[in-house]
Amino acid sequence: MKTKYIPVVLWGFCILLATNNYNFQALLFAQEIDFHIRLLPDFSDLFITSDIQLDSKTYVFQKIGHALSFGILFLLLAKTIGSNAKAIVFCSLFAYFTEFLQLFFLRSGRISDVLIDIGGIYLAYRLTGYVESQGGLSAVFGKIADSFIDDKSR
Fold first, then answer.
1. Disulfide engineering: 124 pairs with which of 55, 67, 72, 74, CB 3.0-4.6 Å?
2. Full-model pTM
């Protein structure tokens, strides 16, 4: 394997670890890794929407994490392979794969989470396009700094 793929593979591994660990909160707060296997999952669970809890801070935090995780994966992969289109396709397929795989680990794999993951991929893609149109990261940060300085001098 070429060394340029190491960050992509490591980040993908982190996503798999987080999404398939039995208790996400235990992983996040106590660094506990625990897997429970279910050999015959119910694939209809992918289509459950009754567990969407937009009033729960934990739920919203996890969904933001979904979007950020896959947005970062897109950024790493697009930079590594040099193709936004291929990175979008691969990351979207990986999003579906992680949700499907969760069904085998007593986790709640959901198509709604795939859509959130793809939303994060799309936002990262759009951010990449914006940054490129502005002349790169240094130009964007320069404009932000200039704006901040202008606001302070008023």
1. 74
2. 0.85
